[in-house]
Amino acid sequence: MLQSINPVNEELIKEYEEHTDSEIENILKRNDKAFKSWRTVDFGHRADLMRKAGDVLRNNRDEYAELMTREMGKPISGARAEVDKCAWVCDYYAENGEAFLNDEIIETDASKSFVTFEPLGSVLAVMPWNFPFWQVFRFAVPGLMAGNAGLLKHASNVTGCALAIEDVFKKAGFPEDLFRTLKIGSSKVAGVIENPIIKAVTLTGSVPAGKAVAEKAGSELKKTVLELGGSDPYLILDDADIDKAIPTCVNSRLINNGQSCIAAKRFIVVESRFEEFEEKFVEEMKNRTMGDPMDDSFDLGPQARNDLRDELHDQVKRSIDKGAKCLLGGEIPDRKGAWYPPTVLTDVKQGMAAYEEELFGPVAAIIKAKDEEEAIQIANDSIFGLGAAVFTEDLGKGEKIASKKLNAGNCFVNSLVKSDPRLPFGGIKESGYGRELSHFGIKEFVNVKTVYVG
């Protein structure tokens, strides 16, 4: 039985019967049948339906936002923005999908030679709870526009969101079985990957989950795209405008209650600006309020589940035990629900959980660097490589550091790291491989076919 539990008050929202093995097989067969028809549909019709999906999202914005907030606790303002972003990605690929997949003529000694892009078939998406709509739409929209079919195994605590997403595509007029939700637990994923109907797998989630899915898919010789954890470093250099940087850094650390793979997690500050940054950062974190996520007046809601909150608190305690100083927060509130306050750790060093591990919640780690060179070295001293940001008034220097010196897939200057349909998104090292979004994302799950006419 899959359960959705409100993290605000620990009350059961709804229980869902898992699909049986025979039901799973039936869904996969119907999905494959829908794909075989869909792949022949012209881009104009695909685009029309995708624009309608965007309209469905906009017309039901409050309903979907409230569903997300109930199931995983994100602030309602962020939930509304998430629905808007999903509608944007629908519009973006409706407008650009065909051009991205146009045949590419390549001059050779043939009378004609070109590359064409053909869909693969049914793609399984294993998705997390933290952005329960956006993570799915950024896979599903380019995938469907490319002619593929989609199967979603969502996190069990956001099953309501999973079924609502399936319904968005139905309401927009897509074929009945082209995008389906599988109500299954994690133990059933390997068996689904083994099914010959599944042609590829995409996963957003933890490093252990990514490795398990990659291992299983690799044994079946099926392509994967993985977007895994992150411990994004934000570098504060000598010439940074601290007053401008502080709200950006705090917003990035606390976005989505701190539960974002590309949230700022490690603040690496050069020695000359350390005390000023630390003082102003703590003051700004103090000003952020925690309360009912349905109330726009609060900045933070609860963590998504009690066990996730407890894991975060354990990381904080282990870091303090090894010498980190807690300047703010660091205690579980005495109230029902998965609450955890904005927390700031300083004197963070190698060997501490706050240095080595991903802190998936509203906990900031401040790290002192001797100078710019050491700040870059510390930033890259991580198993992760998803996002990074550098703050400096010298834009030329910032661009050089971002483009040439930081080891991450998404590097920003004087801005928080964010995803954008127009830009490729993904990581390196243990943050995964492959790219989502832009023209790179739509080409991940296609057959890049060479055609040579003698």
UniProtKB/TrEMBL annotation:
One of its GO terms (molecular function) is succinate-semialdehyde dehydrogenase (NAD+) activity. Pfam families: Aldedh (PF00171). InterPro entries: Ald_DH/histidinol_DH, Ald_DH_C, Ald_DH_CS_CYS, Ald_DH_N, Aldehyde_DH_dom, ALDH_GabD1-like, GABD/Sad-like. Residues 3-451 form the Aldehyde dehydrogenase domain. Keywords: NADP, Oxidoreductase. Belongs to the aldehyde dehydrogenase family. This is Succinate-semialdehyde dehydrogenase. The lineage of its organism: Bacteria, Pseudomonadati, Balneolota, Balneolia, Balneolales.
